[in-house]
Amino acid sequence: MFIISLSYTCDLDVVDNYLQEHVTYLKEQYSKGYFIASGRKVPRTGGIILSRLTSLKKLKDVLEKDPFMINNLATYDIQEFIPTMVNKEFENLKEE
Q1: Which partner for 50 in 2, 28, 37, 71 could form a disulfide, CB atoms 3.0-4.6 Å apart?
Q2: How far apart are CA 43 and CA 77, in angstroms?
C-alpha cells in the first residue's frame, strides 16, 4: 500500500481549473481498484491518496496520468506503508 501526499505548487484558482479532470482521473483509478481513498488536506494545500498497488513503478505510471502532474500543479511524496494492525472493518487492508 502507498500513501501519496500531493502539495500544490500553484494558486488554488489554477488547481480549480483542472479539478474536474483530476476527479475523473481519480474515478478511473478507483474503478480499476488502484485507489481506496482520497481527499483534500486541511488547510487546502494539496491532497492525500491511498493506493492498494504493490509496485512503486506501477504507481508512478498511474500517477503520470493525473492532470495535476501532467500540468505541474503539484508535487507528489510517495510513502510505502504496510498495515499490520487494522480495525475489524478494514481487515481487507491488512498485510503480513
Answers
A1: 37
A2: 17
